[in-house]
Design a protein that fits this description.
Elements: H1 16-46, H2 54-80, H3 85-112
C-alpha cells in the first residue's frame, strides 16, 4: 500500500520522468495515430468519398488527416492537464506524435499536388 502522493512530484513543470515517458510512449502512440488515420480513411470510403483522380484523393487524405489530428489532440488534452509526470508524458507523447504525423501527411498532400 502506498501513502499519499508526494506534493513535490505533482508539479506542472516538465520533469525528467515526464520527458522519458513522452519519448518512449511516442513510439507506440505514433502507431495508434496512424491506425486512427487508416480508420478515418476507411470511414470516408464507406461514406462515399472516392479517390478516382488525384484531386479527390488529395481531398480525402487531407480530410482524414484533419480528423485524425483533431481527435488525437482532444484525446491528449486530459493527459496534459494532470499534475502527474507519467500521465503528462503520455499526453506530450501523443501530442508530439500527432504533430509529426500531420507534418508528414501535409508534405505528402503537397507532393500529390
Amino acid at each position: 500500500m502506498t501513502g499519499p502522493a508526494n506534493p513535490a512530484t505533482l508539479t506542472k513543470a516538465p520533469t525528467e520522468r515526464m520527458w522519458a515517458v513522452a519519448t518512449w510512449s511516442s513510439l507506440l502512440l505514433f502507431q495508434a495515430v496512424c491506425g486512427l488515420f487508416f480508420a478515418a480513411m476507411a470511414a470516408l470510403a464507406k461514406l462515399g468519398y472516392r479517390d478516382n483522380n488525384i484531386d479527390l484523393e488529395r481531398e480525402k487524405i487531407l480530410t482524414a488527416v484533419v480528423a485524425t489530428t483533431l481527435i488525437s489532440l482532444v484525446a491528449s488534452a486530459p493527459f496534459l492537464s494532470t499534475h502527474r509526470p507519467v500521465t503528462r508524458g503520455v499526453g506530450v507523447g501523443l501530442a508530439g506524435s500527432v504533430i509529426i504525423f500531420a507534418i508528414g501527411a501535409a508534405g505528402y498532400v503537397l507532393w500529390l499536388y
